[in-house]
Design brief:
GMP Synthetase, Chain A, domain 3, 33% strand, 2 domains, three-stranded antiparallel beta sheet, alpha+beta, 10 strands
Length: 186
């Protein structure tokens, strides 16, 4: 009889240990997922996502062409090459649906002890326009980090100053971010 009792208690102990291990796995994975969810939900309901580099390149090229065309129309400037650099990428803020559900319950046991449980549930999803494209709320252009202007007429100090002032006014940037240089011959 002792043999069956010992074998039976060992099986029960193994089952209990296995149950504890499985419960521990579920608890740790649930905590890991809730930590990820809480990090996402603490963020602003509207997120900013940088655009790809090709968008920035086309934005830079477009601005460079506009500045060059404007400067070439100034008397005495001549042919112009412009290089613009940005401090960061394009930023798009997307519309989001966010819902927060709060539930609380209060329990009292036979001995007069009370237990209060509060549960917060947050859901957050992108608003889609059409089938797959997220709805853009705000599209923010990056700040200009620096501008280099190479112009034929920049060897004349008066023309150089006109170019400098035109770019400073046009882009509304600090003078230290603008460089004007004369174009060299080949």
């Amino acid at each position: 009889m002792n043999f069956f009792k010992e074998g039976f208690t060992e099986k029960i102990m193994l089952s209990v240990i296995l149950l504890i291990v499985v419960a521990g796995i579920f608890i740790f994975t649930a905590k890991d997922n809730s930590a990820k969810l809480s990090l996402k939900s603490e963020a602003n309901p509207v997120s900013a996502v940088p655009a790809d580099n090709s968008g920035i390149s086309s934005l830079e090229k477009n601005l460079e062409e506009k500045i060059a065309a404007s400067l070439e129309s100034i008397k005495g400037v001549g042919k112009v090459k412009v290089l613009v650099t940005y401090s960061s990428g394009l930023r798009k803020e997307y519309a989001r649906n966010e819902s927060i559900t709060k539930r609380s319950s209060k329990e009292t046991d036979k001995e007069g002890g009370t237990r209060e449980t509060v549960e917060d549930t947050r859901t957050d999803s992108l608003v889609l326009s059409g089938n797959t494209n997220p709805l853009v709320v705000v599209e923010q252009k990056p700040q200009v980090e620096g501008v280099l202007i190479i112009a034929q007429g920049a060897s004349d100090p008066k023309i150089k100053e006109q170019i400098f002032e035109a770019v400073k006014t046009l882009l509304n940037i600090q003078p230290a971010k603008i460089s004007v240089a004369p174009m060299g011959g080949v």
